[in-house]
Design a protein that fits this description.
Length: about 130
């Protein structure tokens, strides 16, 4: 009877070796390293996640970005007065005075550029 190690679910050392050797064989198919293919697919899917508009014409990309900013504002504008009703009049005055969604300025370079937008939205209290 083979020694049984309970740390690996009771499998014998020889059965683990067989499983691992089969796994090694399965990782290469027709001379292609399947692990490497999976890693490359993972990188590609991560890249595509950040390039959601890559197949759209540039003008359509800009329009979608404006739509997203407007939707974000509508969501915030709808929830802020409900969460802070005591700031209602102040909020409306500040909004009219300071807040503007400007047109997107197209980049002169349409290939290889990166845009980034970071916002902090909330109540700021002076110490």
């Amino acid at each position: 009877m083979a020694d049984t190690d309970m740390s690996n679910g009771g499998a014998t050392d020889s059965s683990l070796k067989r499983k691992n050797s089969n796994a090694d064989e399965m990782e290469v198919e027709d001379g292609v390293d399947l692990k490497k293919v999976k890693q490359e697919e993972g990188v590609e899917s991560k890249t595509l996640k950040f390039l959601a508009y890559k197949d759209l014409p540039y003008e359509e990309q800009l329009k979608k970005k404006v739509d997203e900013v407007e939707q974000c504002f509508k969501t915030f504008h709808g929830s802020f007065p409900k969460q802070y009703p005591e700031l209602g009049d102040w909020y409306r005055n500040q909004l009219l005075k300071w807040f503007r969604i400007e047109e997107i300025r197209p980049s002169p370079k349409q290939e290889g550029y990166r845009n980034k937008c970071e916002l902090t939205i909330g109540v700021f209290q002076v110490p």
